[in-house]
Amino acid sequence: MNIVLFHSTYGLRPAVRQAADRLRDAGHQVWTPDLFGGRVADEVEEGRRIKDEIGKEELLKRAVLAAAPYSERGLVYAGFSLGAAVAQTLALGDDKARGLLLLHGTSDLAPETRADGLPVQLHVAEPDPFEPDDWLSAWYLQMSRAGADVEIYRYAGAGHLYTDPGLPDYDEEAAEATWRVALGFLETLRDQPAAR
Question: Residues of the chain whose pLDDT is less than 70?
Fold first, then answer.
């Protein structure tokens, strides 16, 4: 599969490159755009300042420009936290999207959004202060009404960015379980025609 993988509010950290390598080792082609222009945060507050300084519209513009050269191939959009929200926005706007892999994050949907048959897999901590239960229930209903084929995996006791070994949230057991399931999801997409 052709995958574009977007980083979190921390920027293009080593964990994102390691995740991309894991996907490449499984036979996928992966691009990791740097939406922060080389800036990386050590603390979440610093990352939020960078994100706010760049602005939501500019971040989305950078993401669209980064994905555009590969979108004709039929991309799987993926991302971590902030990057998951970006991936969701792009996937729902791309009729050729092959799938959507969300790690630690989601985004809201416009009422008219259509995602007919789009395979979507979400992995989040339980509980997650950034993805509370009420929000996830509403998000699931919105995605289902839009026509997406959604799977949600929750990991009890894990921190928000539990797949990043360089952060305090890291949970090795939850991270490995996430990657096993995610790689299986991507493998199922390999043999399927584009749903949209």
Answer: 193-196
Structural domain including 95 reads 2-190
The domain that holds 126 is classified in CATH as: 3.40.50.1820
Q: Is 173 helix (H, G, I), strand (E, B) or coil?
A: helix
Contacts of 183 by beta carbon, 8 Å cutoff, 6+ apart: 22, 23, 26
The model's pTM is 0.95
How far is it between the farthest Cα atoms of the chain? 41
10: which 2 tokens? 């921390």
Q: Under a CB-based contact definition with an 8 Å cutoff, are residues 57 and 40 in contact? A: no
Do the domain assignments include residue 131? yes
37 found inside a domain: yes
Residue 126 lies in a domain: yes
What's the pLDDT tens digit per position in 97-115? Answer: 999 999 999 999 877 888 9
Contact 184/1 with Cβ under 8 angstroms?
A: no
Model pLDDT, residue 71: 87
β-bridge partners, 120 = 100, 150
- 80: its two tokens: 């971590």
Question: How many domains is the chain built from?
Answer: 1
Side-by-side strand order, sheet with 119-126:
29-31, 2-6, 75-80, 99-103, 119-126, 149-156
